[in-house]
Amino acid sequence: MEKNIYKPVKCEVIDNIKESPTINTIVLKPEREFSFLAGQFASLTVPGVGEAPFTPSSSPFDKEKLEFTVMRTGRVTEKIHQLKKGDIVGVRGPYGKPYPLEEFKGKEILLVGGGVGLAPIRALFLALIETYKEYKKIVFCCGARTPSDYIYKDKLFGEWQNLCKKIPLSFRITVDRKDENWKYMEGVVTCTLDGLDIDVKNSISVVCGPPIMMKFTTLKLLEIGFSENSIYLSMERKMYCGVGHCRHCLMGDVFVCKDGPVFKYSEIKDKPNIWV
Amino acid sequence: MEKLYIKKDDWKEFLKGKIKANKIYAPVENNNFLFYEVLNEEKIEKIVYDRARTVEPLKIFLYPFKEFAVPEVEIKEKIIVMGATSCDLQGLEILDSVFKNGDYKDPNYPERRENLLIISFDCKNPYSSCFCWLVGVKPYPEKNFDLNLSLIGNGFIVEIGSQKGKEFIGNDTRFYNPNEIQLKTLEEERGKVIEKIEEINREYSLKNVENLKGMYQKEYWQKVKDIENCVSCGSCNFNCPTCVCFLLEDTSENGFFKKVKVWDSCLFPGYAKMASGETPRPTLFDRYANRLLCKYWYMKENYGVFGCTGCGRCISGCIGKIDKRKVLTEILSEKVKV
After folding, report:
1. How far apart are CA A260 and CA A94, in angstroms?
2. Cβ–Cβ below 8 Å for A247 and B248
3. pTM for this structure?
4. How many other C-beta atoms lie within 10 A of the C-beta of residue A90?
5. With an 8 Å Cβ cutoff, are B281 and A273 in contact?
């Protein structure tokens, strides 16, 4: 990290991939190595426009490039979608606490991602499959509104599913509304949790998605027997500094930037308005 | 703590010598209020030693309203601030914890702090908005100063709070050991000021202020009518010695990263609003509650001390004429049990 905590590392845009009608993945080449652990986030500067926090979606093991999957929602993300090869942006971080992979060892891992929430989960997923022998099995539940809203289509409906033949990995894929070509499930993401073949007493679940999805997924997980300690949520708040100074991300007395962004449900269940 | 005494006239002469090489700010009266002004020979005569806090909080010297964070500001100037009171020195506990003592250092604050020499004053005549004693802060400084002055008779008892303060005095023979009577007077006067603060605040009770812990629900706060008078102006934030919230604005140009840090206010409706348009605190009551919970709960959890020092600026500066002590007293009483 730079001596000045707010000074970004220069990165060159090497690709800007359209994932869905509202979501792009930008591929960056940092001027110098930028390391992070799955679950940590970074602040991305579009020079002269603004800065916003995102969790990288690329593998933490990839030291050459850095990817962010970004939904177009505001001023900065609009500009991110317009970035072209060769453009320069800035990245500072990494910030926050990563997923505690040590605690995941020997357990069954359930990943639940919805919409653009698949982005942080992708970084975790790529880290998990790199070290898959450490875990009993990995179940990846994915949801999106429609088939075209899915991100990482090439990987999700190809390469990643092929891995299931080689490693203890399975997918449960759904959309809220299917089309005529859809061959997976239909229904909101919580329906992928029905009839799960998982030992809830020896499992970890990781949830990321829009607030409403996280809320109902958490409730469902509790209902099927996951303990409050075994549900990991990736929280989102307005942020500027990333280091616990500016106080914008406070959720009660906890900083999403510094104490999170990954929390066990038990750590935040009593905090105010967690499902904003 | 080492105590010395200096006659008022000698102190003025001492200051006259000091202003030649130092930029010194001190409280001067303007329209009945005390403001910091840069000293010159004429102003030395106008310093007010026997009242209470200034209008501006001490943080303005350490954490300006707006400044570059990238690139960091080159801070060379050493400044001296006279007249800070105990409430503002207590505020440094929060500022230092946030910007200097944690894992991440602010790009500018630590150097500004290092370059600041503080000559605090005892609070002699608290305002009707003062309530330091109710949040456990004494009206006279016990730490975080280099020198502290207390006007006793026709001179000052000077307490030496740091090596920096000791060096500022040097071997000047105009400072000498105080006598027993002067020391006794100091103690008596300090006791009287505490009594005065108790008298000012006799209608209010903040004894169980830690009970605010857990009181997120706006249903508690909606019962306090006065809160409706809040116009979300942010005056309480900007006047507060411990409010630290800021936003970072990107102003990068010509291939260079530039970021500006600007104070922000948690009472502004957009403060916590995310790109999606959602905010965890959509109503005025949520936001008002959040500010007080931050002062009496979150900051205590985060840094070990209350984020309120009882300076009363949020009361005297409130456009909606909300008296926080009244709000707290009501909310902590049985009346508002949900």
Report:
1. 12
2. no
3. 0.95
4. 25
5. yes
ipTM of the complex as predicted: 0.94
Is the preceding omega at residue B139 within 30 degrees of 0, hence cis? no
Tokens encoding A123? 């970084």
**Touching A: B residues 28-47, CB under 8 Å:** none
A252 touches chain B (CB under 8 A): yes
Per-residue pLDDT of A125-177, as tens digits, reads 999 999 999 999 999 999 999 999 999 999 999 999 999 999 999 999 999 99
Closest residue in chain A to residue B247, using alpha carbons only? A240
Q: Which residues contact A5 (CB under 8 A, 6 or more apart)?
A: A92, A241, A243, B104, B105, B106, B107
* pLDDT at residue B282 is higher than 70: yes
Q: Which of B120, B98, B113 is nearest to B242 (CA)?
A: B98
Q: Using CA atoms, how far apart are residues A138 and A124, in angstroms rounded to an integer?
A: 11
3-state secondary structure of A26: strand
Measured in angstroms, the CA of B142 and the nearest CA of chain A are apart by 27
Q: Which of A245, A251, A276 sits opposite B104 (nearest CB)?
A: A245
Q: List the beta bridge partners of residue A251.
A: A254
Residue B144, phi-psi category: left (phi > 0), alpha (psi -120 to 50), beta (remainder) = left
